[in-house]
Amino acid sequence: MQVMQVMQAAHTEEYALFHRVSFLKSLQDITNKIHATDNVQQIMLDLSDNIRDQFKAEHLTLYAVDVTKLAIQTTVKTGLKSFKDFSLPIAGSSIAGYVALTKSVVNIRNVYDKEELAAYTPKLEFRSKVDSRTGYRTKQMLTGPIVNAGNGEILGVLQLINTKEGNPFSSVMEEGMQLICETLAIAFEKRMKPVPTVRSKYDYLVINGVISAPELALAISASRRKGVDLENVLVDEFQVPLKSIGESLGNFYGFNYEAYQVGRSIPLRTTTFQRAFVEDHEWLVIESNEERIHVLCTDPEELIEHNIVNQFFHDATIRYSVTTRRDFHQTVADFYQEYDHGLKNEADYGEDFSLGVATVAERQLLKRVHKTLTQAFHEKAADIHLKQYFVPKKTASILRRNGSVKTIRGQVVLDFHVNLPDENDD
Question: Which residue from 37, 42, 146, 307 has the highest number of Cβ atoms inside 10 Å of its Cβ?
C-alpha cells in the first residue's frame, strides 16, 4: 500500500513537471513573438487570443501607466464602434491598482471572498459594478505587474479573468504570468523611448488644420497603393488647395513658396537646358542677371546638398524658391511652349536637323535668321551681311545629350543685316 502511494506521488510529480515544462515551452513561442515587435497595441491585437488560450482564461485586460504616473489605463469597448478609456488609481483599493502599487503577482481564487482580499490589504475590494452592469460573473483573477527591469518603474499591468474550467489559476500559471510580464516590459520600454521624428513635407497641412492626421495617413496609403504621386492624391481626392501644399513645402524646406505665374518671360540662361532635363530634375532658372539667378524647384535640399546648380553657374549667387510639382510643370510648359509648338509649325529645317541637339536659345536664333532670310528672298534682297561678335565676359554651360557638361567661356553673338533693293530698281 505504501509502495503504491509512493508510485502515485511520483507519477503525480512527474505529470506536474511535464505540465510545467509543456506550459512554459508553449509560452516561449508567445514571448518570442512579443520580442519581435515594440508595438504594444499590435501585440495585443495579434497575441491576446494566444495568451488567453495559453492560460485557459476567458478574458484579458492590459493596463498601461498614464502620463501622470498616478493611474493605470485601458481602453474598453462600449459599443459596436465605440470605445472608452478606463482608469484605476495606483493604490490598494482595486486589484489591478494594488498590483501596480506593490509590483507583485496576485492570484485571486474568488474575487467576492472579502477575507481572501483582506489577506493582501484591508482596503482591497473587487468592483462588482462592472459585473452588475454587464451580467458577467467574475471569479478568478490572475494579475501581474509590468516593471522596468532597469529602474523598477511600473509600466503597466496584465490581468487574466476566469479560467475556462472554473478552477483557480495554478502556480505554474503564476510563473507564466511573471514571464509574460517581463517580456511585455521590454516592449513597453521600447515604446516609451523617444522615437526619431521623421519630418514630412506635408506636416504643416495637419498643423494648420487643412486636413487631419488620419486623412494624411489615408492619403499616403492611397498614394502607395495606387502608385500615384501624393501631391496628386491630396489635390484630386482630398481637395487640398495647391497653395496650402506649397506653403507646407515652404515651411518644410525653409524657402519661399513660388506659385505658378501666367506670362513669365523665359530667361536666357534657362534656354541652355533642354526641356527633358528640366522636367526630370525639377529645377528651372526663372530670373537671372550677370551676378544672380533665381531657381524654382521642388526639392532645394537635394540641389544644395549635392551642389547641383553651382556646377552650372560657378560665379553666380543663387536664390531658391520651392514650388509644387503641378506649379513647376505648368511653368515649364509655359517656358518651352514657343519652342515645342511655334518652331515646328513655322519652320522646316530639313530631315537632318535634330530638335534634340540645339539648345532653345540656338533654335530661337535660327528661327529669327530663317524668317529674315525668307523675307529677304521674297523681297529680292541685294545682299545679306552676317557679323560675328565675341563677348569674353559671358559664360555658358552646355549639357550634352550623353550627360556631360561643357562650360564655354565667352559668348559669340551673331548679327545680320539685309540690304533690300531700291524700289526704283528693275
Answer: 146
